[in-house]
Design brief:
Largest sheet: 2 strands, antiparallel
Strand content: under 5%
Number of strands: 4
Strand order of the largest sheet: 1-2
Number of helices: 34
Shape: elongated
Distance between the termini: 113 Å
Structural class: mainly alpha
Length: about 725
């Protein structure tokens, strides 16, 4: 038909006549098309419907012809074309025709035309027959608008200037009101999910619009026959029926405004109370749509401060099943792009805890369900802190404001091992969720030490309420933050709070608690003053944890080595009597380790307690420790292990001699190298023996190249 119409430049009168002709032709074709459905016996309805679908392209070609005419601008489209098209579509009163023709209008005319006539399109939807697939029409319209807004900033501004969301918010509830009895809730939820795409594309800064969509999604789930909606206000609870909610020109927006501004509970948010909310079945169609909605929000708004503006978030997740609520709470923390300090008051922190409450609830009373997919972040148990000693580098990190359990951006991901049982996998996933809860401390504003101290107390109290088993994962980041606060604030008050946290951690993670005691010792020394009282107490607590809670022999040696090096570093902060008693306890603990090899290593390390710049020098005690180390090495049955221990003792002795402890020089120590060489010569030529001989040769070469060592230890110097 297009080739029969006049082409080229036309006057306005000619264009209007052309449009009138095409519209008249469209009207006639549509009437015939609709009449086909009724002009047949009932038993042929299905066949006739199939035939009509095949003819639909011919009917829709008239609409496409109008859209391709030159000179059809928004004014002409709004005043002449669209009213006649909608009048014909509504008056035909046939669902198949209405659905198809409305989609044709949405697809063939420019986006600018839809923005300018959005209200007319939405109002026409409320007049359609109940058999029309509402979601398809709305999805087609919103998808075009969202793509248009995302193409360029100018397009986005055009959508905003047209107050597109306000038009949807005013008209869409009327459409939902009519179709709610005849359409599945899933389809209505998908319609609002489509609207959310427009909001995220055109209004990236309007979290209140997102919040309204969450509110309407919850309302859809409750606005069924005979149900009611309760909205929390300051001093009362108002119950409205679904019919009352949808009444009025505002389509429920006035009720939303009252609900969103009332109520002091950040988790209540003016939504349906938890007593009246019916949980959805897990993995049901409605729940899947809601998860998709909140996932789109999290993907678009990665800043936690934006997410906390969703006052109806709690109402939204309350309708989800318990496992899905935990998944959504995990997503809330997992998808944060940057851990910046955005929580600046207690109310905001409490609100965040309300949002993630499904995740931090006591795992002993909840059903085990996977929280996230099995690609987990670095677990606390495998953190770098467990492999490092509390040396000056650890204290420097606290000074610089970086802890070893830092934000996720610095953590290395790890993969789940193959061969794990389902229960083990679920436990690891729950642990990963608790780690994310622990990282909440990185969101706290640190500009005011007093306020940060209160924040830490709130976190500590909330973590304890969440269940004791979770403390081993949620407390470590909080302890690091408290020690950092104590150092920057120079406050014993913060140290006391950190000590309380470590005491709670001791039962569930003694290895980490011991290391925290040692870190706290160094922090207390740096603060000075009254805080030095914590130095002795924390080292004694670390020794107690070593003796009563750590049973692995290798871990006992590692922990005692850390205690020894820390005591040496902070010994000058203690009274001489206290330091002497502490050294005796460390030497006694070293002599009581499970294996002779560990005893020898620990006693060699203990020599630094009595010969250092911090506490002074005591050659007699150094010689005693070396003598006990030699006795432990002599008792080792394996000749191979004995040679390594002799070499370690010799190296430690020569180091002390070079530091000025001349009393350690003796012929017996010098003979350790010869004894080791004889033991290795008696063994077969294996790779281990070869490695031991190389180590022994390096020690001997170093000693023989120092004439003073040769004389003092009665070694034969090279000629």
């Amino acid at each position: 038909m297009k080739d029969k119409l006049p082409d080229g430049e036309r006057s306005k009168e000619q264009l209007e006549r052309t449009i009138g002709f095409v519209l008249e032709n469209f009207t006639a074709m549509n009437r015939l098309w609709v009449r086909l459905q009724y002009d047949c016996p009932p038993e042929m309805n299905k066949l006739r419907t199939k035939q009509r679908r095949e003819l639909s392209l011919l009917v829709g070609s008239s609409i496409m012809t109008i859209s391709q005419l030159r000179g059809v601008d928004l004014s002409l489209y709004k005043t002449l074309i669209l009213p006649k098209l909608l009048d014909q579509i509504v008056s035909c009163k046939e669902s198949l025709a209405q659905e198809y023709l409305m989609e044709c209008i949405v697809q063939v005319f420019p986006d600018e035309h839809h923005i300018g006539t959005l209200e007319e399109l939405l109002k026409a939807l409320s007049k359609f027959e109940k058999g029309v697939d509402l979601r398809l029409v709305i999805a087609a319209l919103t998808d075009r608008l969202s793509r248009f807004a995302a193409n360029s900033p100018e397009n986005c501004e055009a959508v905003r200037n047209a107050r597109t969301f306000d038009v949807f918010a005013a008209c869409l509830p009327d459409v939902v009101k009519k179709f709610a009895p005849f359409i599945q809730r899933t389809e209505l939820l998908k319609a609002y999910a489509s609207l959310l795409r427009v909001v995220l594309a055109a209004y990236p800064d309007r979290m209140d619009f997102v919040d309204q969509i969450l509110y309407f999604c919850v309302t859809i789930l409750q606005a069924t026959e005979g149900s009611s909606i309760t909205t929390g206000e300051e001093d009362k609870v108002t119950t409205i029926t679904s019919e009352e909610f949808f009444e009025g020109d505002d389509g429920g927006m006035a009720e939303y405004a009252r609900a969103s501004t009332a109520g002091k509970d950040p988790g209540n948010g003016g939504n349906a109370s938890s007593e009246t909310v019916e949980e959805l079945a897990e993995c049901s169609a409605e729940e899947n749509v809601l998860v998709q909605v909140i996932s789109m929000v999290f993907e678009a708004h990665k800043d936690i401060s934006d997410r906390l503006k969703l006052h109806h978030f709690m109402a939204f997740i309350r309708v989800l099943s318990s496992p899905t609520r935990r998944k959504v709470a995990a997503m809330l923390l997992e998808s944060i792009s940057e851990y910046k300090q955005c929580i600046q008051d207690e109310a905001t922190l409490e609100k965040l805890f309300v949002y993630v409450d499904p995740l931090i609830s006591d795992r002993s009373i909840r059903k085990k369900q996977p929280l996230v997919h099995p690609l987990l972040e670095k677990l606390v148990e495998n953190s770098a802190f467990d492999r490092e000693s509390p040396t000056a580098s650890g204290q420097a990190r606290i000074r610089e404001g970086h802890d070893m359990e830092g934000p996720p951006s610095s953590a290395q991901p790890s993969f789940l091992s193959f061969g794990q049982t389902q229960e083990q996998t679920e436990e690891l996933e729950m642990d990963a969720g608790q780690q994310r809860v622990g990282r909440i401390v990185h969101l706290l504003d640190s500009s005011s030490p007093e306020r940060l101290f209160v924040f830490h107390r709130m976190c500590f109290d909330r973590f304890r309420e969440a269940g004791e088993k979770n403390l081993r994962l949620t407390l470590p980041p909080l302890v690091f933050a408290s020690l950092r606060l104590a150092f920057s604030w120079m406050s014993s008050k913060a140290l006391e709070q950190a000590l309380e946290m470590i005491n709670c951690l001791e039962e569930f993670n003694p290895k980490k608690a011991l290391r925290f005691y040692l870190e706290m010792t160094k922090t207390a020394k740096s603060i000075g003053g009254s805080a030095r009282a914590y130095v002795l107490h924390c080292i004694e607590r670390a020794l107690e944890v070593l003796e009563t809670r750590i049973v692995d022999s290798r871990e006992q040696l590692r922990s005692l080595t850390l205690i020894t090096s820390t005591t040496t570093a902070v010994g000058g902060s203690m009274a001489a009597v206290d330091y002497e008693n502490l050294c005796q306890s460390i030497v006694k603990a070293g002599s009581q380790l499970l294996t002779r090899r560990d005893q020898c290593t620990a006693l060699c390390d203990a020599t630094e307690l009595f010969w250092n710049d911090e506490t002074g020098n005591d050659a007699i005690r150094v010689v005693e420790c070396l003598g006990m180390a030699i006795d432990s090495a002599d008792a080792v049955v394996s000749g191979f292990e004995r040679t390594f221990l002799y070499c370690d003792i010799f190296n430690r002795t020569t180091t002390l001699f070079e530091l000025g402890c001349n009393e350690v020089a003796s012929k017996e120590v010098g003979q350790l190298l010869a004894i080791s060489k004889n033991l290795l010569d008696e063994m077969g030529p294996t790779s281990k023996v070869h490695a031991a001989k190389k180590r022994l040769a390096r020690a001997e070469k170093y000693a023989l190249n120092n004439p003073e060592l040769c004389r003092s230890f009665s070694l034969i110097a090279p000629q």
